[in-house]
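Trying the structure run again after the queue cleared.
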Amino acid sequence: MTDDRRKPTLGELALEVRSKNAGPFWITMELFMRTPEDYAIVADETFINEDVVARLYDLDPADVQIFRIPSLNVVKISYPRPVAQGSLRDRDVHAGQHHVPLAALVPP
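Done. Tokens:
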């Protein structure tokens, strides 16, 4: 007998996962969790940490900044944009699509 139930992705578990500009040289992603229990899952440093974000976005882990805000049930992640906002090679001026790989993660 197999278990057909699957675990929800981070995007399904969260109230909202979004990304946006944090100036012309940085991108910020925010994970708004519904409950303190859900927040505890994503705030756990063994699940989301600098190394995980660096692998997802092909970054140096030293460039990743993670802010955990328990009073708001929010985890905020910032990192340098791969190219400056509005430059010739910028394919996402508003940085509105960068959250997708993060939202696809499956919490433990």
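The mean pLDDT is 90. Worth checking whether this holds up in the mutant runs.
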